[in-house]
Amino acid sequence: MIKKIIISVVLLVLLAGGGLFFYLDSIVKSGIEVVGSSVLGAAVTVDSVSLSPLSGQGSISGLRVANPEGFESQYAFELDSVLVNINVNTVFTDAAEIESIIIMQPIITYETKITSDNIRTLLNNLDEGNAASSDPESAEDSGQQMIIREFRMVGSQLNFVSSVVSAPITLADIEIRDIGTESGTASAAAAVRVVLQELVASILSADLPGLDELRESVEGRIQDGVQQVEEVVEDLGGRLRNILN
Predict the structure, then answer these.
(1) Over the range 20-47, which residues count as b (16 or more CB within 10 Å of their CB) and which as e?
(2) What's the Cα-to-Cα distance from 77 to each of 59, 88, 90, rounded to whole Å?
(3) How many Å separate Cα 53 from the centre of its chain?
(4) For the CA atoms of 207, 203, 46, 112, what is the dihedral angle to 10 degrees?
(5) 29 to each of 48, 88, 197, how far by Cα in Å?
(6) Phi, psi torsion values for 214, nearest 5 degrees
(7) What is the pLDDT along the chain (245 residues), one digit of tens a residue?
């Protein structure tokens, strides 16, 4: 009899633990998709989240940010592997503390058009969201604040896409510490802005493909390819610098 009681208690504990795991995973997954889509003005989807409710360590798989409306590429960001470490005691508070976010080998698409580009459009969406939340009543519903102790983006690949040419560019690793600590906490939009601006700085310091390489990629497609490619390459640096202003 005692043995049966012990087995029953163990089963209940395991079921409760499993439910807690699923509940926390669902909260984080839903939060990323809802808040991310709201602040970026573009669909954010997540395949799965696996997070320990005891240690706060886990991973996010298949996080994708769709390109804003008007751009041809399907995604602006494809993050297949994101390692996270969250202070679980702060998940249900007004200010979540995230010990670390490490993004492994993301694929980033920078798509440029005559008058705009997808990264600048996403940043503009952040600005529009901040303007909307400046109303006191909206500010109350602006969502959970956060502190991110460490953010790293490792092994990034940038796909540069224009109407004339596309080329892969390898980016340097990004490391940011203490996002939100200077002002106490940061909103989701503010944290994303910090990351996007650091990404732009990384793009600016990257080795852009040479003109000879770009010419070869369009040779035979357009007669005046050389001139157009030169204009695209010269314009890239200017566009990215405009994002930082």
Answers:
(1) ebeebbeebbebbeebbeebbebebebe
(2) 17, 27, 28
(3) 23
(4) -100
(5) 7, 15, 24
(6) -70, -35
(7) 544 444 333 333 333 444 444 567 888 888 899 989 999 999 999 999 998 888 889 999 999 999 998 888 899 999 999 999 999 888 778 888 999 999 999 999 988 877 778 888 898 888 776 555 544 444 334 567 999 999 999 999 988 877 666 677 888 899 999 999 888 888 988 999 999 889 888 877 776 554 445 445 544 444 444 455 555 555 555 555 555 55
Neighbours of 110 (CB within 10 A): 23
190: helix, strand or coil: helix
- At how many degrees (to 10) do helices 211-218 and 225-244 cross? 120
Q: What pTM, to 2 d.p., does this model score?
A: 0.74
Q: What is the DSSP letter of 14?
A: H
